[in-house]
């Protein structure tokens, strides 16, 4: 894909490929996509096959922003290249902070950056605990699925078959997932006013949850159940976020 700047504020957004048809699933790139769409910046998407993520990030001279369980570098996406300032940003939260400086539609209310950072870590830890329910169903591109599966297993340190959870074990984990979301529901302080964490007004914290909901939408067979949990709280949020879910 040509990443040449067409407008002064053109951004290239690097996301993990899936499909076809394209239905991106990775939670952190989804956080960035929501933020890009919400702030109305002009951008194009560069799709990167999972086995090519490490090489792509290294080619952009970006360090790994995470570590594997064995303490080796974990190269991942999203990344944005802001051509207007020739700036590369390689972490979803830092991308949101960068975009917040470019738009008159703020992602963060004044004085909430640290709170958002802590909430992002909390949400990531919570939802990651239940990724085993979905990992077996990741929508790899069929043309490179065998390579992508091998790369995923290398990153996870487990065989893909170990993620095929069935029967009572699956039902127990789904129940634990539903119950595990109870503390998160307490963050919805104005649910009688609207679907977002603070009622009518969306903020970046909603996109943090939305990124994870998009992941489970694309990978969890019981997605319709998740949407109905807790009086449909997360389903209502997901539906409300569709306004900023355009895949470009």
Automatic annotation (TrEMBL):
Residues in Glutathione S-transferase UstS-like C-terminal domain copies: 116-244
Segments crossing the lipid bilayer: none
InterPro entries in UniProt: Glutathione-S-Trfase_C_sf, Glutathione_S-Trfase_N, GST_UstS-like_C, Thioredoxin-like_sf
Residue intervals of the GST N-terminal domain: 27-101
Protein name: GST N-terminal domain-containing protein
Originating organism: Myriangium duriaei CBS 260.36
């Amino acid at each position: 894909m040509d990443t040449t700047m067409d407008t002064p504020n053109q951004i290239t957004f690097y996301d993990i490929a899936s499909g076809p048809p394209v239905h991106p699933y990775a939670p952190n790139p989804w956080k960035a996509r929501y933020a890009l769409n919400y702030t109305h910046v002009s951008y194009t998407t560069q799709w990167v096959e999972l086995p090519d993520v490490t090489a792509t990030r290294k080619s952009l001279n970006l360090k790994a922003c995470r570590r594997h369980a064995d303490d080796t570098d974990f190269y991942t996406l999203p990344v944005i290249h802001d051509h207007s300032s020739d700036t590369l940003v390689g972490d979803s939260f830092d991308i949101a902070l960068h975009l917040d400086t470019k738009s008159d539609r703020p992602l963060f209310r004044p004085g909430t950056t640290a709170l958002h950072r802590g909430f992002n870590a909390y949400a990531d830890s919570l939802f990651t605990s239940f990724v085993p329910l979905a990992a077996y169903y990741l929508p790899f591109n069929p043309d490179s699925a065998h390579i992508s599966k091998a790369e995923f297993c290398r990153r996870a340190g487990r065989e893909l078959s170990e993620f095929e959870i069935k029967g009572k074990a699956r039902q127990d984990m789904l129940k634990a997932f539903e119950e595990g979301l109870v503390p998160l529901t307490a963050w919805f302080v104005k649910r009688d006013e609207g679907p977002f964490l603070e009622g009518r007004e969306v903020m970046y914290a909603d996109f943090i949850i939305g990124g994870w909901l998009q992941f489970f939408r694309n990978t969890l067979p019981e997605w319709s159940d998740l949407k109905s949990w807790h009086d449909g709280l997360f389903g209502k949020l997901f539906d409300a976020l569709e306004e900023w879910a355009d895949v470009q």
